[in-house]
């Protein structure tokens, strides 16, 4: 599901729940339209609650932008599996992917809004992370 | 390092068997302080590795170990996949880089340190590291296989007294105390199965 302007930072949503991941991606899409590359990964390899490093890797590739990709995660395993997926992506692309320490819904929406204006990856990440206490 | 097809296949089967026999137990431990799927996640990973057994057993040992690690990453899900996956992938890489010239306890230490970095955890955080480090220590002291297995079991039980600092269990704070960590438990089960396999098939 990579539509959007490839010049803008991409957004990836990772949740233990496929429904949550897809729902947030839908919400982001409705709020910012097609101008950011966007993808999600939710659930384990069987679609049950969990996370899947291979699925996250495919989502990062689907939302790929040469400006970088910001990844939003829910619970611990989502973060660990996302780190694994970023390593599997390999250099030099792995250096252009950042996991944001931000709330999943609010972080993804505000990051996408920032990205839609053409902001850099660092700016997108910083804006999302301002939401964290 | 010589590839030993029978050894690799035997170890895979020993690990799969012990996880299958303890799937419900591991899920029950995880229900208490996590999301209840550690046993089924680990079983799915072991079955995926087992399904590739024939191909894995034809690889040089470092490659086989690394590939087992990647298979676990891709199939276990949860945090256990990347943690066990990192352990095995790093063991494989270290074995290859050193070409068998360095002792296994040193290889294992480097791999465990990689797991600690991956999980941003330390000894005492109530994770599988609380079994891995004692096992590494026992191996470095040339303990017998029986003693290594005992140390693993004892170490897993000791996690009951710890307060979880990482993972889902950490959200429970003090309520995590009194429960054995599921990851530590699966790690002890695997260690014991591997020690028994070597004891029966290679030497005591």
UniProtKB/TrEMBL annotation, chain A:
Q: GO MF annotations for this entry?
A: phosphoenolpyruvate-glycerone phosphotransferase activity
Entry EC number(s): 2.7.1.121
Instruction: Kindly name one Pfam family recorded for this protein.
Output: EIIA-man
Assigned GO CC terms: membrane
Instruction: List the catalysed reactions.
Output: dihydroxyacetone + phosphoenolpyruvate = dihydroxyacetone phosphate + pyruvate
A biological process from GO = glycerol catabolic process
Enzyme class label: transferase
Q: Which UniProt keywords apply?
A: Kinase, Plasmid, Transferase
**Annotated PTS EIIA type-4 domain residues:** 8-133
Domain of life of the source: Bacteria
What NCBIfam families does the annotation carry?
dha_pts
Assembly and interactions?
Homodimer. The dihydroxyacetone kinase complex is composed of a homodimer of DhaM, a homodimer of DhaK and the subunit DhaL.
Entry function: Component of the dihydroxyacetone kinase complex, which is responsible for the phosphoenolpyruvate (PEP)-dependent phosphorylation of dihydroxyacetone. DhaM serves as the phosphoryl donor. Is phosphorylated by phosphoenolpyruvate in an EI- and HPr-dependent reaction, and a phosphorelay system on histidine residues finally leads to phosphoryl transfer to DhaL and dihydroxyacetone.
Name this polypeptide is given: phosphoenolpyruvate--glycerone phosphotransferase
Annotated source species: Rhizobium gallicum bv. gallicum R602sp
- Top-level taxonomy: Bacteria, Pseudomonadati, Pseudomonadota, Alphaproteobacteria, Hyphomicrobiales
From TrEMBL, chain B:
* InterPro entries noted in UniProt: DhaK_L_YcgS, DhaL_dom, DhaL_dom_sf, Dihydroxyacetone_Kinase
Q: List the SUPFAM superfamilies.
A: DhaL-like
One MF annotation (Gene Ontology) recorded for this entry:
glycerone kinase activity
Q: Which Gene3D superfamilies match?
A: 1.25.40.340
Q: Name one GO biological process term.
A: glycerol catabolic process
Extract the SMART domains matched here: Dak2
DhaL domain location: 6-196
Query: Could you tell me which Pfam families the record lists for this protein?
Result: Dak2 (PF02734)
User: What keywords are assigned to this protein?
Assistant: Kinase, Plasmid, Transferase
GO cellular component terms, alphabetically, are:
cytosol
| Coiled coil feature spans | none
Carries keyword Cell inner membrane?
A: no
- Which PROSITE patterns does this UniProt record tie to the protein? DHAL
Q: Which domain of life is it from?
A: Bacteria
The protein's matches in NCBIfam families, at most eight in alphabetical order, are given as:
dha_L_ycgS
> Could you tell me what this protein is called?
PTS-dependent dihydroxyacetone kinase subunit dhaL 2
The UniProt gene name for this protein comes to: dhaL-2
